[in-house]
Amino acid sequence: MTRRRSWLRPPSWTTPTGMLPSRMTGCPCSGSWTVISHAQTVYKAVPELHFIFLIVPSYMSLGSTLITVFDQVGNIPCLTYEEDFAVHICHRHSHYPQLHVRKARVEDHDDLMPIFMHYDTILKETYGEYFLAELIEAQDEENHAVVCESCFYGR
């Protein structure tokens, strides 16, 4: 039988209120969308960040809000108390993936034209149907074309 302890956090562990999910701060806009929005904001602000870990006593429930963002990956024992801790993870690729930038190729024309035509048809009317392929093909030392790719199809 494990002993349950009330976890009083020392001042060094305190989190500024603005950093907590809104459910914890009492904001009326609470909900899973808000926690997802917080995760996206964190990943936008820190491009080098790939994971967010959340470690809580194993008897604690994350609740219906945090469970939508964090997946449990395991348990770790505590060395000072007779309790285990649950380890949860939030993956970057689930909320705000990184873009992969590469040099454009003529073959990209078929994938890029619908995007261009969605926003503006004047370019096609002015420069012709294959203006983008010609632009990509005309790359030299001073003029470059790049493509940003993402495997993100959600949210």
From TrEMBL:
PANTHER family: CILIA- AND FLAGELLA-ASSOCIATED PROTEIN 61 (PTHR21178). Pfam families: CFAP61_N. The lineage of its organism: Eukaryota, Metazoa, Chordata, Craniata, Vertebrata. Residues 40-150 form the Cilia- and flagella-associated protein 61 N-terminal domain. This is Cilia- and flagella-associated protein 61 N-terminal domain-containing protein. It comes from the Eukaryota.
